[in-house]
Structures are given as structure tokens and as C-alpha cells.
Amino acid sequence: MRQKVSVIGAGNVGATVAQRVFDKGYADVVLVDIVEGLPQGKALDMLESAPVMGSDASIVGTNDYAATAGSDVVVITSGIARKPGMSRDDLLFTNMDIVGSVTKSVVEASPEAIIVTVTNPLDAMTQHALEVSGHPRDRVFGMAGILDTARFRSFLAQELGVAVQDVHAYVLGGHGDTMVPLVGSSNVGGVPIADLLPPDRVEAIVQRTRGGGGEIVALLKTGSAYYAPSAAVAQMVEAILFDRKQIVPCCVRLEGEYGIEGLCVGVPVKLGAKGVEEVITVKLTDDENAALQASAEAVRELVEVMRARV
After folding, report:
1. CATH class of 145-309
2. I need a surface site. Which of 10, 81, 85, 124 has the fewest CB within 10 A?
3. Which residues are part of the catalytic machinery?
4. How many degrees, rounded to 5, is the angle at CA 89 between CA 310 and CA 151?
């Protein structure tokens, strides 16, 4: 019997997550959105690709959470992008309301599901979903670090002309301008990148990684990234469903690790069938630790703004 993955939000990210999972055929997929006809139409389109893709999984679109009952993994992509004239707090509160409502519906339909959040601002939304769900931290966590790390590795591989598989790196911290690419431990085939690139090129790649999402928004003009984000989500879903015990950076509530208490921040974790099975502590330089603490404080500010509103 196939496992079940529900994706909440049928926009570009959500629909592409659904497509990636459905194409591989290892899980049945439910795509949910509040817009009538949108998830149904996209799911039907994907279903009709099954003979070409060789997928015998099922996929349905719906406006009703009843269809998500019994999900093993639920991915929350619902929310809005920041619009002209909208303040940071406006975006925060709007998506806070959306994610809170979605989380309640998800927990009611699938109380045992593992929840992966994708909605921005990612770290704050993960914190909110975790608190609304009442679940332990191992079952509610966010996607960001895999995406940020993928961007960092892609840029390094491109700069050095090497296979991306040979580039080993992590990006920690909040999903935004304060993210922390770990330059000190980044390497290509075991050779530190500091031995391969001059400091100014390393710094340029770090800054491009931090602005990776904004670079795509500026080019698209009417949207934001979804191919790489959906690939990152799919990697997390597969690590859970196949119990891979994979070490990947995810946004998870820290309970003293890295000197951070009670706050959702991106760090490496072991991801398997139980969700976050272990937080992995990596050695940081003094500068990296200071940057991580500063990134955590930026997340804390958003969380405190949310809590003050409740």
C-alpha cells in the first residue's frame, strides 16, 4: 500500500511538489487549495501524464481537507507573496492566519502526519505551525536549509567547474538575508574552498546565496522560485517516507543546541521515518557562531511580533 502525501496550496511551489512526488509513483497525492477548480484541474492534468511517466500512484485535487485524512506527510505551501505597499508585518500576519488555519485543519484530518512547512517567512511560519499543532518538534519542521544549501553548492560548482555532487556545504540560520553559509567547513572533494578560491570570490558567492531568491524574483518580475524549492521539499518527503536517515539542513525548534532555546532555526538534522530524529551539531568558527546567533535573533523578532498579536 502506498503512503499518502498531501500538499496544501496549489500555486507554483505546491503544484510542482505534487508533480515531483506523483511522477515518481511512490506515494498517492492529494492537492488542496481554496480556489475552486484549481487543484482539481492541476491534479487531473498530472494524472493524465501517468502513462508517460510510468506512475501508478493516484492524485486528486480538492477544496476539502476530508480527502487528506490519513496522510503520512503534509506539505504546507499556502500563503501570499508580499505585494507592493504591504509591510513586513502585514505579510507576517496574513500568512500567520493562513498557516494557523491550515495547520488546524491538517491536524484534525491527519493527527499522526508529519508536517513540512514552506510558507514564508519560513522560520516564523514553522514556529507558528508547531505551536498551533501541539506536536513535538520532530513532527513539524520547515524547508529552507536544503534550498539555500543547494543554491550555495550550485554557485560553488559553477565557479569551480566541478560536479555539484563533489561540493559539500551547509547553510544554517534563518531563511533570508541573515542565513549563514558555512564557509569554514565547505569543501570540494575534501579540499577546503578557501584553498580553491580567493576570499573575494567566496564572499561574492556567499552574498549571491543570501540573495538567491531575490535574484530570481527580479528576473521573473511577476513570481518567485518554485523549481528548486519544490525539489528541496521532495527530497525531504523522500527522506521521511523511505526512512533514509539523511543529514540535511531543516528549520527545527532548537532546545539548547547551538546555544539557542525554543526557536525554529535552520540546522543540520537526521531526517527519517519519525521526522527529525536528531539535531546534528557541527563545529562552527567564532564568526559563524556569531552570525548564527544574529540570524536567530532576527527570527526571534518575528516570533515576538506574532505572539504580541495573539
Report:
1. alpha beta
2. 85
3. 175
4. 115
Whole-angstrom distance, CA of residue 250 vs CA of residue 186: 18
> Which residues are registered as beta bridge partners of 247?
270
Per-residue confidence (pLDDT) for residue 310, from 0 to 100: 66
Structural contact between residues 38 and 10, judged by C-beta atoms closer than 8 angstroms: yes
How far apart CA 62 and CA 43 sit, in angstroms, is: 9
Has residue 309 got a pLDDT over 90?
Answer: no
Question: d(Cα 22, Cα 10) in Å, to the nearest integer?
Answer: 14
**Is the distance from CB of 68 to CB of 14 less than 8 angstroms?**
no
CB contact set of 267 (below 8 Å; sequence gap of 6+): 145, 172, 249, 250, 252, 254, 257, 258, 279, 280
pTM exceeds 0.90, yes or no: yes
CA distance 29 to 42: 12
Task: Say whether domain 3-142 belongs to CATH 3.40.1010.20.
Answer: no
